[in-house]
């Protein structure tokens, strides 16, 4: 045994992480170094080691800083650190989540270097109460509660009103459950519902529904303004009316004209406020919310007080008809002045003035008595029995009380204005459309996700609590109104019977003015909020550039305020103002909101049923059946409230959908005659061809390379088992193999091999396709499979191949050379690679792991494959009960505590449940064992190289040829020097030069051996062996009992001379582990924190 001298190998200087590839890294060490942005490049070194564009890469100055990547403990990965950064570097980037590296292109554009230079964003600090619950309350409670709920209870009765409230609130609750699942499936930036739907169902649906949501929000602002003007003109300052009617019909039209004038003025003022300073709107939001809460509390206080001291609001009845109370002073036909009975003002209204003769009076007035009843009997009066059932009216029908005696005769038409009558025809369906806007506003929390401390917890809790609270308030209000207020007063929309008081105000305590003033300010506030939110939503749609004619609305003031979008919003809201009727505008915005909620439910149901890898909501209490129920309720409510509005709204959404589809892709009609399936498949493939899949939709589409034995049987069927467990029947799986030979001669064998593989796929429950190719060399056949498998957009993105077992014992180098060549090809093709080692120990589909861990050793970041694979495996029953543990490596100069905290936060954002551990690797000296093992590896390589050279010389000399093997191994290939056609006769030819050369070689043999024994190992190999030994030591120490270990697979050396050493490094790295999955990313992000 030779003696070795161990020489310590000094690490090259490494001053910092050097902000890998142009990203402004937030390093754990305070180096004081600044970094500058550079342009991404794509390059290749000719060995398949491509440096490509990546969300976290920029390789412009990698060559200048190559020495800085050298790290004694990560030397195996040093050649690729420019495209696969250290985990510590990646995690430091995640300190500021507004500039997160994960995600899609649109997020990267928003988080450009210019934006980060402009201003450092404040950390979000809003909790569930202030960030979600109260904003949702403010948006849900609104004008309908104060102006129309009493009227709805009077018309529909308590039972049908409860049904209306229950239907609308159930619809929004189911939508909130679906929305919570979507909102907790990653970060939801500005845009709220539009963002969620467009990123879940695509730009066509997103654009259509986004515009519907925008139109709904815009019409909501018009509705709130009309409500505020109605309160202003009816209850606050009736004298401000500009137009006055002379008859009942004329007064209605005059009121509408007043609403149009004042509504337009109010809209203009609000738009100016929003344009000048939106921050003032946000500051006043809490004041408006306080008004709402105080008003609601006053209603409950008044209802409780009415049990003992009901408020005094008498109603004057003529027979059973309700009279307009402000037209006369005393509720009597005659009054006594002194001792003389004189006609009252009421008499003069129904009779000719100055004559007590009954002949000159209205017939109905003469034959019926005038009575006065209590308008607010109180909670204990039993009035609830009369208000239990509905009493729908036609337009112009007079409000009558059923229990009062009346002689039914026709009165004079001139006196019609003295009675309280219905201004519109009512029905159950109409009331549903009018009430539904009071259940909307549930998106307020998701729209503020960027301001929340923990959006994934706050949005579901806050939204569902807000809907529960508002639903209880609505349900209890329906019962209280029906229990306290007289039926004819409930049916009196504008309070004509109670001296033009707001009906709900008559119940409130201490004064009706509390409700009037509170509802006015809350309605104005809600209108301002809608005018603020709608332009931002339109701006978000315009910036996505999916609807070309909206592009101009993406621009705004220098501070980002959407000026042009605000202008368009004002014009559309003016259309709602010109309608001038709250009861006509409410069903319109109901349609648009219902359309939006329908697609939120659809998005959740589709995502749940498709089980895309990115669908990992933190909110667990959802189900596709609930989403479909919510979707069905939305559709039903649309047609219940107004079938023609529903058709118009769906038509608008459909036209926008087709417009976006037409602008974005060519029309594909299909042939239809030759088969619908072929047409649909062709259409789908052409759609897939448009571009690479979004990060959210990325799932491993597998190409499994199988090895067949001499009898055409699958040698390692557990590769198929592993593929079936990983895919769980989803996505694409192609199983490929190579037969060595000539296609014309081997066609039969190819068909037999295909059948054998298909049979094995059926046994292992692999749903996919099989492809066997015949090639003169196995290596070339594998390259053909990698290049040509799949069709159009249905192509593989991940290669699965087995480990070349026994490569050390074999004198034939073809097995491991083919393996390394395949690794290089997958890298060059930007494909991910998985190599299950010891695959025969992997579980079958019939086994169940009841406990244990899946350990992920995340050493370098190459797209997130290591995070995604365990999540996909755990979807299968074999691995479902295994726990996931993630280990990452910290160097001496890393802050391991901060790394662990950042990694835990990152996993929380990814919605992946895993135990996190940071392993510290100290810069220890290279051990004698490492040095000796490196030396033995290099001596073996040198010896085998010399043996192969001498063998090759002999073969060339004697022209000896081995018979060709018809069925080649997948991981073996023939030497290039082999002659194709063997001669029938072997003839040896000796020359004088050959004799002397042979004699020299024999004399030099001892000298060659001495050179071999005195060989000094290469320093880079020592470093790589040190990395392999140290990493293996910590992996075995922590994960020796793990069910499966996932590990970053180092890339092959750029210099092909070190290929054999690379195989040795991989062996050392995985020694002592039962099941190992070596993973290489394909150079793109496959997992994202975004929804």
UniProtKB/TrEMBL annotation:
Gene Ontology molecular function: potassium:chloride symporter activity
Q: How does it sit in the membrane?
A: Multi-pass membrane protein
**Record flagged with keyword Magnesium:** no
Reaction equations catalysed: K(+)(in) + chloride(in) = K(+)(out) + chloride(out)
InterPro entries reported in the protein's UniProt record: AA-permease/SLC12A_dom, KCL_cotranspt, SLC12_C, SLC12A_fam
Q: Which domain of life is it from?
A: Eukaryota
GO cellular component term of the entry, any: plasma membrane
Q: Where is the composition biased (Basic and acidic residues)?
A: 28-40
Amino acid permease/ SLC12A domain location is 132-303, 403-703
Whether Transcription regulation counts among this entry's keywords is no
Question: Which intervals of the chain are annotated as region Disordered?
Answer: 28-57, 102-122
Annotated localization? Cell membrane
* GO-annotated biological processes: cell volume homeostasis; chemical synaptic transmission; chloride ion homeostasis; potassium ion homeostasis; potassium ion import across plasma membrane
Q: Which residues form the SLC12A transporter C-terminal domain?
A: 717-835, 849-1091
By its UniProt entry, which Pfam families does this protein fall under?
AA_permease, SLC12
Alphabetical UniProt keywords: Cell membrane, Chloride, Glycoprotein, Ion transport, Membrane, Phosphoprotein, Potassium, Potassium transport, Symport, Transmembrane, Transmembrane helix, Transport
List the transmembrane segments.
Answer: 132-151, 163-188, 208-233, 261-278, 284-303, 424-444, 464-490, 502-521, 563-582, 589-610, 622-648
The record's section on PANTHER family has: SOLUTE CARRIER FAMILY 12 MEMBER 4, SOLUTE CARRIER FAMILY 12, CATION COTRANSPORTERS
- Which NCBIfam families does UniProt cross-reference here? 2a30 (TIGR00930)
- State the family named in the UniProt similarity comment for this chain: Belongs to the SLC12A transporter family. K/Cl co-transporter subfamily.
Its recorded name reads Solute carrier family 12 member 4
């Amino acid at each position: 045994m030779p003696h070795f001298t161990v020489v310590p190998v000094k690490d090259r200087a490494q001053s910092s992480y050097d902000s890998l590839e142009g990203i402004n890294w937030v390093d754990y060490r305070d180096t004081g170094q600044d970094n500058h942005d550079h342009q991404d490049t794509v390059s290749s070194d000719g060995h398949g080691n491509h440096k490509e564009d990546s969300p976290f890469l920029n390789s412009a100055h990698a060559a200048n800083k190559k020495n800085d990547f050298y790290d004694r403990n990560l030397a195996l990965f040093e050649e690729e650190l420019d495209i696969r950064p250290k985990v510590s570097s990646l995690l430091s980037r995640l300190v500021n989540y507004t500039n997160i590296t994960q995600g899609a292109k649109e997020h990267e554009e928003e988080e450009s270097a210019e934006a980060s230079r402009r201003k450092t964003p404040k950390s979000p600090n809003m909790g569930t109460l202030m960030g979600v619950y109260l904003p949702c309350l403010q948006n849900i409670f609104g004008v309908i509660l104060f102006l129309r709920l009493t009227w709805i209870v009077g018309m529909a009765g308590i039972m049908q009103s409860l049904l209306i409230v229950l239907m609308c609130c159930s619809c929004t609750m189911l939508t909130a459950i679906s929305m919570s699942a979507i909102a907790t499936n990653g970060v939801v930036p500005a845009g709220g519902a539009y963002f969620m739907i467009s990123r879940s169902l695509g730009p066509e649906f997103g654009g259509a529904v986004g515009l519907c949501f925008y139109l709904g929000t815009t019409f909501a602002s018009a509705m709130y303004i009309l409500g505020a003007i109605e309160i202003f003109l009816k209850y606050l300052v009736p004298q401000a009316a500009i137009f006055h009617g002379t008859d009942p019909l004329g007064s209605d039209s005059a009121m509408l004209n007043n609403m149009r004038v004042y509504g337009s003025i109010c809209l203009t003022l609000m738009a100016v406020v929003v344009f000048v300073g939106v921050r003032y709107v946000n500051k006043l939001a809490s004041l408006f919310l306080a008004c709402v809460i105080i008003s609601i509390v006053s209603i409950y206080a008044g209802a409780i007080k009415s049990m003992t001291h009901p408020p005094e609001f008498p109603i004057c009845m003529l027979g059973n008809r309700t009279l307009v109370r402000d037209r006369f002073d005393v509720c009597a036909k005659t009054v006594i002045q002194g001792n003389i009975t004189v006609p009252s003002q009421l008499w003069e209204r129904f009779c000719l003035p100055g004559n007590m003769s009954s002949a000159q009076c209205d017939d109905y007035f003469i034959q019926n008595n005038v009575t006065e009843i209590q308008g607010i009997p109180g909670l204990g009066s039993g009035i609830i029995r009369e208000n239990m059932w509905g009493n729908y009216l036609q337009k112009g029908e007079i409000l009558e009380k059923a229990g009062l005696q009346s002689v039914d005769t026709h009165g004079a038409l001139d006196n019609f204005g003295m009675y309280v009558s219905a201004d519109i025809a009512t029905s159950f369906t109409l009331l549903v459309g009018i009430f539904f806007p009071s259940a909307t506003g549930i998106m307020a929390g998701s729209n503020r996700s960027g301001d929340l401390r923990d959006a994934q917890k706050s949005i579901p809790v806050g939204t569902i609590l807000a809907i529960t609270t508002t639903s209880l308030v609505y349900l209890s209000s329906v019962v209280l109104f029906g229990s306290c207020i007289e039926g004819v007063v409930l049916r009196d929309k504008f309070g004509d019977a109670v001296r033009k008081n707001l009906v709900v105000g008559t119940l409130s305590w201490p004064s009706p003015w509390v409700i009037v003033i509170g509802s006015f300010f809350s309605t104005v506030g809600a209108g301002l909020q809608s005018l603020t939110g709608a332009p931002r939503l339109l701006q978000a749609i315009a910036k996505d550039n999916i609807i070309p004619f909206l592009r101009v609305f993406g621009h705004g003031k220098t501070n980002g305020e959407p000026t042009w979008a605000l202008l368009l919003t004002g014009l559309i809201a003016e259309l709602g103002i010109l309608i001038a009727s709250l009861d006509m505008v409410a069903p319109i915005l109901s349609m648009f909101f219902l359309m939006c909620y329908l697609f939120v439910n659809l998005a959740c149901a589709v995502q749940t049923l498709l089980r895309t890898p990115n669908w990992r909501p933190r909110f667990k209490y959802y189900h596709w059946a609930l989403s479909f129920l919510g979707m069905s309720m939305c559709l039903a409510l649309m047609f219940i409230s107004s079938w023609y509005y529903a058709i118009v709204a769906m038509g608008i959404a459909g036209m926008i959908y087709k417009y976006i589809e037409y602008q974005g892709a060519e029309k594909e009609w299909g042939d239809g005659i030759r088969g619908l399936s072929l047409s649909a498949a062709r259409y789908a493939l052409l759609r897939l061809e448009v571009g690479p899949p979004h990060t959210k939709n990325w799932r491993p589409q597998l190409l499994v390379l199988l090895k067949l034995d001499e009898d055409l049987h699958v040698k390692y069927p557990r590769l198929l088992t592993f593929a079936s467990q990983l895919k769980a029947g989803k996505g694409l799986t192609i199983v490929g193999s190579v037969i060595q030979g000539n296609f014309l001669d081997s066609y039969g064998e190819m068909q037999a091999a295909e059948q054998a593989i298909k049979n094995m796929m059926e046994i292992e429950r692999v749903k996919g396709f099989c492809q066997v190719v015949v090639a003169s060399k196995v290596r070339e056949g594998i390259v053909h499979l990698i290049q040509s498998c799949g069709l159009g957009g249905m192509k593989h993105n991940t290669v699965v191949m087995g480990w070349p077992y026994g490569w050390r014992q074999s004198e034939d180098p073809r097995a491991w050379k083919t393996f390394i060549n395949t690794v290089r090809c997958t890298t060059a093709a930007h494909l991910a690679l998985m190599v299950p080692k010891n695959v025969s120990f992997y579980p079958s589909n019939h086994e169940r792991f009841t406990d244990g861990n899946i350990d992920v050793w995340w050493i370098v970041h190459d797209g997130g494959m290591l995070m995604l694979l365990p999540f996909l495996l755990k979807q299968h029953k074999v691995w479902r009960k295994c726990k996931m543990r993630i280990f990452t490596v910290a160097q001496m100069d890393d802050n391991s505590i901060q790394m662990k905290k950042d990694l835990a936060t990152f996993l929380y954002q990814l919605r992946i449940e895993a135990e996190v551990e940071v392993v510290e690797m100290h810069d220890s000296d290279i051990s004698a064992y490492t040095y000796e093992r490196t030396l033995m590896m290099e001596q073996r390589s040198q010896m085998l190289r010399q043996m192969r050279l001498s063998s090759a010389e002999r073969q060339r000399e004697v022209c000896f040829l081995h018979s060709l093997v018809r069925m080649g191994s997948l991981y073996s290939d023939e030497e290039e020097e082999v002659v194709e056609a063997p001669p029938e006769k072997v003839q040896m030819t000796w020359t004088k030069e050959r004799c002397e050369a042979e004699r020299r070689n024999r004399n030099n043999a001892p000298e060659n051996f001495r050179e071999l024994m005195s060989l000094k190992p290469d320093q880079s190999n020592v470093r790589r062996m040190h990395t392999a030994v140290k990493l293996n030591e910590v992996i075995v120490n922590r994960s020796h009992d793990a069910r499966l270990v996932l590990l970053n697979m180092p890339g092959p050396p750029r210099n092909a001379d070190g290929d054999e050493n690379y195989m040795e490094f991989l062996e050392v790295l995985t020694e002592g582990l039962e099941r190992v999955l070596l993973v290489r990313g394909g150079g793109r992000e496959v997992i994202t924190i975004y929804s």
